[in-house]
Write a structure and sequence with these properties.
With about 300 residues, the chain is an alpha/beta fold. It has twelve helices and five strands. The chain has helices at about 15-25, 35-40, 60-70, 75-90, 100-105, 140-145, 180-185, 205-215, 240-250, 255-260, 265-280, 290-295; strands at about 120-135, 150-160, 165-175, 195, 215-220.
């Protein structure tokens, strides 16, 4: 099968060091302004409706929440940061909503996803990571063990291994299985998808069938000791991708199969997890699931 042709190993080392170093420096440079397109649309222009009217636009609330999230600030400090920034920009006449109003509006804010251009079919690597809500720090757990009062959320990400762009994401409770989120993740991707790389936690027939119905080739390592499935009839077992993987692993071994299938691209989704936690931290600052999803 041409899908199992050995591919040259890609080199992911940084080569543009000057540009890379400058980008990291700029990440810490807090000399910035709020874009004019935001300040010009600071107040809401939505039509009048029954009840209290919205004073501030969604753009205003989103800008404050971006400051809050990136600089890991509580709500009150986020408001103070915004007030000071507007004063530096000679825009002190713009009022800033209260921290309670920002919190309330943020829960139902309709945030438009960042449009990622793509020419032609793309590859997606999907994985999930835990983000802590409540619980002790690493030192306490190491010294005294962990207690039952630990709450986590699962962050599911779909990453293009070639560009590093995050095309889709979902936040769920930690009781949700990984494979149950695949279809919802792929629904967010506007570009055509050719292949999806997933780890062994997604080795479920529902996951395979969902991808094949979308005409997407699944690359998922079967569990050790896995038996063959058939799709609709026993006679079509050899055509099922998972069965092809099992057969090939029996022939050349698991490590060689991963090289042939270029499976190691999936690890780049873990790199995206590391990037996320480095920039935004390993914990959620919001307490409810709906605001954690927005965050």
């Amino acid at each position: 099968d041409e899908r199992f042709e050995v591919k040259d190993k890609q080199d992911y080392r940084v080569v543009n060091w000057a540009e890379y170093n400058k980008a990291l420096e700029n990440r810490g440079n807090i000399t910035f302004i709020i874009d004019e397109s935001v300040t010009q649309n600071w107040y809401s222009d939505s039509p009048a409706q029954r009840g209290a009217q919205e004073t501030y636009s969604d753009t205003c609330i989103e800008a404050i929440m971006m400051i809050k999230t990136i600089f890991r600030l509580p709500y009150r400090q986020s408001r103070g940061f915004t007030v000071g920034l507007l004063q530096l920009m000679d825009l002190a006449h713009l009022k800033v909503p209260s921290f309670t109003q920002v919190n309330r509006r943020f829960r139902t804010l309709n945030i438009s996803p960042f449009a990622i251009p793509a020419s032609g079919p793309i590859t997606i690597a999907i994985d999930s990571t835990g983000v802590k809500v409540y619980g002790e720090g690493e030192w306490k757990c190491r010294k005294h063990g962990w207690s039952k009062r630990r709450t986590w959320r699962k962050l599911h990400l779909g990453v293009d291994p070639c560009t590093g762009f995050i095309h889709c994401h979902i936040t769920t409770t930690n009781s949700e299985s990984d494979e149950s989120q695949v279809n919802d993740l792929l629904d967010q991707v506007e570009a055509e998808i050719d292949e999806v790389y997933l780890d062994g936690a997604y080795d479920a027939q529902s996951c395979y069938d969902g991808l094949l119905e979308r005409d997407i080739w699944p690359v998922i390592p079967p569990q050790r000791g896995a038996v063959k499935w058939y799709w609709e009839e026993p006679g079509d077992a050899d055509d099922y991708p998972r069965n092809q993987f099992i057969k090939r692993i029996e022939e050349v071994g698991r490590a060689e199969w991963k090289k042939e299938a270029d499976y190691h691209q999936r690890s780049l989704s873990e790199t995206a997890m590391y990037r996320y936690k480095t920039i935004f931290g390993p914990t959620h600052y919001s307490r409810s699931l709906e605001t954690q999803t927005q965050e």
